[in-house]
Design a protein that fits this description.
Order of helices and strands: HEEHEEHEHEHEEHEEEEHE
CATH architecture: Alpha-Beta Complex
GO molecular function: double-stranded RNA binding; L-threonylcarbamoyladenylate synthase; tRNA binding
Number of domains: 1
Number of helices: 7
CATH class: Alpha Beta
Structural class: alpha/beta
Subcellular location: Cell membrane; Cytoplasm; Mitochondrion
Catalytic activity: L-threonine + hydrogencarbonate + ATP = L-threonylcarbamoyladenylate + diphosphate + H2O
EC number: 2.7.7.87
CATH topology: DHBP synthase
Number of strands: 13
Radius of gyration: 18 Å
Enzyme class: transferase
Strand content: 15-25%
Largest sheet: 13 strands, mixed
CATH superfamily: DHBP synthase
């Protein structure tokens, strides 16, 4: 772990710009690197499949008793960078991602530019809790179904509501929703007043990344890089599959858009517990 941190620090020094600033400079006086400490035990426990987490008032950080000071500072730094219109690299429960405020049209355009992404490919939104999903989506499945899959490595595609930024995926009436099963991402999403736009930290068509060093070419264009350490086994191709993407916008049916890393348990829940059928049926 110490070797990995040293390698990241040296890479940051190589990429650093001329101006001093807080943290490790990753670009011309703009970006910073934050090393994420262990989360500790939060006051409330989230988790998969109806973990019973209490709703948190949007725009406020969730209760963080038990989180170390460095953790809270990392959340505050990331939230501040996002509120300023920046792009932030973040660890998730699947691969590293890049986030911005979904309601900030200029920031959304910056993500597409960063990735060299086709403008017709949609971005998912990221939230901290299932309760907030109802503001941005029209839900036609049982609440417990949502809680059986979220938080977790699944993206649920639903009908978007009028609350969502019209410049985000203007070509579709649908939106993918992520609630990663990662304490930093949930704390960060709760610290922001609106949803995050979230995509993988890589150039489009290139492989997903499991360490911050794997996307260091993007660092100069980011406001902040949050280093949560390696995600999973970096030697395993299965760890780079990303989330399972499932369309639930048609009542009583589901459609797998991307198999991802959680296909089998997701389909089992949808079919056996809730009686949904594949849309092609």
């Amino acid at each position: 772990m110490a070797r990995a941190a040293l390698a990241v620090a040296r890479a940051a020094e190589r990429a650093a710009g001329p101006g001093p600033g807080p943290g490790l400079g990753l670009g011309p006086g703009r970006a910073r690197l934050v090393l994420l400490p262990p989360a500790g035990e939060p006051a409330e426990r989230g988790g998969r499949a109806g973990g019973g987490s209490a709703p948190v008032e949007p725009g406020r950080v969730a209760p963080e008793r038990g989180r170390p000071a460095e953790w809270r500072e990392a959340v505050a730094a990331a939230a501040g960078a996002l509120q300023a219109g920046g792009l932030v690299a973040v660890p998730t429960d699947t691969v590293y991602g890049v986030a911005c405020l979904a309601q900030d049209s200029a920031a959304v355009r910056s993500i597409y530019s960063l990735k060299g992404r086709n403008g017709s490919k949609p971005l998912a939104i990221c939230l901290g809790d299932v309760e907030r999903l109802y503001r941005y989506c029209h839900v036609n499945v049982p609440d417990q179904l949502l809680r059986d899959l979220l938080p977790g490595p699944v993206t649920l595609v639903l009908e978007r509501s009028e609350e969502l930024n019209k410049d985000l995926n203007p070509f579709t009436s649908l939106v993918g929703v992520r609630i990663p099963d990662h304490p930093f991402m949930r704390d960060l999403a709760r610290a922001c007043s609106g949803p995050l736009a979230l995509t993988s930290a890589n150039i489009s068509s290139q492989g997903s990344t499991l360490t911050v060093l794997e996307f260091q070419d993007l660092w100069p264009q980011l406001s902040l890089v949050v280093d949560g350490g390696p995600i999973g086994d970096i030697q395993s191709p299965e760890c780079r599959l990303g989330s399972t993407v499932v369309d639930l916008s048609v009542s009583g049916k589901f459609s797998i858009i991307r198999p991802g890393c959680a296909l089998t348990p997701t389909v089992e829940i949808l079919k056996k517990k809730y009686g949904l059928v594949p849309e092609s049926s």
